[in-house]
Write a structure and sequence with these properties.
156 residues, mainly alpha, single chain, 5 helices, Helix Hairpins
Length: 156
């Protein structure tokens, strides 16, 4: 494994873990500090693409690429859930401060772009939720592609 590949596999996992720890520490975020989450999302997407490229170039094996992408996806879902819990969600016109379980539910529903419609983000989090949905598409595509490659490799 090349050094740059190891850095791009480990750095986002560590970075996302640190971001999750900061969020869960109880710090309250304002609309201005939410911009940092866009950067987390951006760099995680770049890291996932680099993992895929590293696999395609045969710098890392398939299982490591799948594991790295899956761990990044789970950490991002947890980060977004913590943000939703901290800032709050909307239930119709009424703001609510959801439990972590409800925030996790909303994060998974947003990540998968399922969208039941029972909860929605407040105006301050609309772009955050949109970024999560786009990341869900990106990571789903990457993981499905890697899974297909794994199945093809097992078949041959």
């Amino acid at each position: 494994m090349r050094l740059y590949t190891a850095v791009f596999l480990i750095a986002p996992i560590v970075g996302n873990g640190v971001a999750l720890a900061i969020i869960l520490s109880g710090r309250v975020f304002s609309e201005e500090t939410l911009a940092g989450f866009y950067w987390i999302a951006f760099f995680s997407a770049i890291a996932a693409l680099i993992s895929l490229i590293a696999f395609l170039r045969k710098d890392i094996d398939l299982e490591l690429a799948m594991l790295g992408s899956a761990v990044q996806a789970v950490l991002l879902i947890l980060i977004f859930a913590a943000v939703y819990q901290d800032v709050g969600l909307m239930d119709g016109p009424d703001p609510v401060h959801p439990s972590f379980q409800t925030s996790l539910y909303f994060s998974i529903v947003t990540w998968t772009t399922l969208g039941y419609g029972d909860l929605h983000p407040p105006r301050a989090l609309q772009l955050v939720a949109a970024a999560e949905a786009l990341l869900g598409y990106l990571f789903s595509g990457i993981l499905i592609g890697l899974l297909v490659a794994r199945l093809e490799a097992a078949r041959t």
